[in-house]
Amino acid sequence: MQRQIITTGFLLLSLIFPLKVLAKDYDNIYVFGDSFSDTGNVFNATNGIIPPSPTYSNGRFSNGKIWVDYLASDLGLTLNLKNNFAFGGATTGTENIGLPSLPGLQQQINSFVSANETADPNALYIIWAGTNDYLSYFFDGDPNPTNAVVNLSAALTSLVADGARDIMVVNLPDLGKLPVANFNSQRSNLFNTFTSTHNSSLNVTLKSLRQQLSPDINIIELNVNSLFDRIIAAPEEFGFTNVTNSCISEDLSVVPIDVPTQQVLCNPEKFLFWDEVHPTTTTHKLIGELAFSALEPVPVPEPSAGLGMLVCSVLSAVSLLKRKIAN
Question: Which superfamily, per CATH, for 23-239+279-296?
Fold first, then answer.
C-alpha cells in the first residue's frame, strides 16, 4: 500500500513536470527531391548554366541558402553535397521536366541504395517531391496525385528496406498560390485541387505506413502547406509585404513557361517567392526552422508559483498518508 501511494505521488509529479525527451543526434543528412532541395546538382550537371548566376545563388534555386542548408546548420551538421541527391525538375517518378537526361526521385533513391549496402541508421533522410508532377501540366503532362503518392511511398519503403530509420517526408505548399498559377483563378483552383488531393492522400499513406512498418521507423511528416497558408494569411507577422508576385519577373531556372509575368522591383527579404515557383531564402529559412522544430522536443515551461504550490500539496499528501500507514 505504501509503495502504491509513493508511486502515485511521483506519477502526479511526472504529469506536472513532464520529462524532456532528448532529441536524436543525427550524424548526417541525406536529401532526395527536386529544386526545393537541390544544393547544386543541376548546376553542376549543366556546367553552371542552370540555375544561372548571379540571379540564383551558389547553384541553389533561390537567392541564397535553401531550407536544408538552414536545417543542417541548426542541427550542428555540415551539409555534405555528396549526400544530396535532389535534382531540380525531378518528379516523384523517373521523369525530369527540366532536362530529360537528369533523374527523377526513383533514380535518386536507386542511386543511393546501389551505393549504400546498408543505410546509416543514425542519419536523417529527407524526401520532398511532387511539385514537378503537377507543373508537368504546362508541358502537356497528365498530373495524377495517386501515382505521385504511390511513388513517394515506394521511395520511403526503399530507404527503410536499406536500413534508414528516421525519414522526413514533406508535403506540398498550395501550388495554386504559386505566381506561375495564381494569375488566373481557373488555373489557381486546378493547382489547389492537385495540392489538396496530393496532401490528403500522402497523409493517409504515411499513417498506414506507420502501422505497417517496424515501430522503430520514425516517419516525420513536415507540414509545409500549413506554414505557407499561415504566411499568406498574415504576411506581416513574418515580415513579408508581397506573397503573391515573384521577386524576379520570370523563372529563369526551368524551361520557359508561356504564362503572363509581372515585372516587380523588390526587396527579396519582403517576398515569399523569388521566381514564379521557388521561395526566397528568407522563406527557406522559415521552412528550415519548421523542420528543426519537428525534430526537436518542445521545451518544458518553467513551473509557475501555482504549480509549485500543487507540488507541495502532492508531497504533503504523500507524506501524511505514509505516516498514517506507519501508525
Answer: SGNH hydrolase (3.40.50.1110)
Q: What percent of the chain has pLDDT over 90?
A: 76
User: What is the rounded distance in angstroms from the CA atom of residue 219 to the CA atom of residue 264?
Assistant: 40
Burial class (CB in 10 A: 0-12, 13-18, 19+), 2: exposed
Scored b (16 or more CB within 10 A) or e, 149-186 reads bebbbebbbbbbebebbbbbbbbbbbbbbbbbbbbeee
> End-to-end CA distance of the chain, in Å?
14
C-alpha cell recorded at residue 263: 515585372
- Supply the DSSP string of 69-124, one letter for each residue: HHHHHHTT----GGGB---TTB-SSS-BSS-TTS--HHHHHHHHHHH-SS--TTSE
Measured CA to CA, the distance from residue 186 to residue 297 in angstroms comes to: 42
Q: Longest Cα pair distance anywhere in the chain, in angstroms?
A: 88
Residue 258: Cβ-neighbour burial (10 angstroms; 0-12, 13-18, 19+):
exposed
Q: Supply the angle between the helices 145-162 and 185-212 in degrees, to the nearest 10.
A: 30
All cell numbers assigned to 207 = 499513417
pLDDT higher at 65 or 17: 65
β-pair partners for 218: 166
Q: What is the pLDDT of residues 152-176, one digit of tens each?
A: 999 999 999 999 999 999 999 999 9
Q: In the chain, which ranges are continuous DSSP H helix?
A: 2-16, 41-45, 67-74, 105-115, 131-135, 145-162, 185-212, 224-233, 281-295, 305-326
Asked if residue 121 has a cis previous peptide bond (ω within 30° of 0), the answer is no
Domain range summary for the chain, segments of one domain joined by +: 23-239+279-296
**CA-CA distance, 243 to 272, in Å (whole number)?**
5
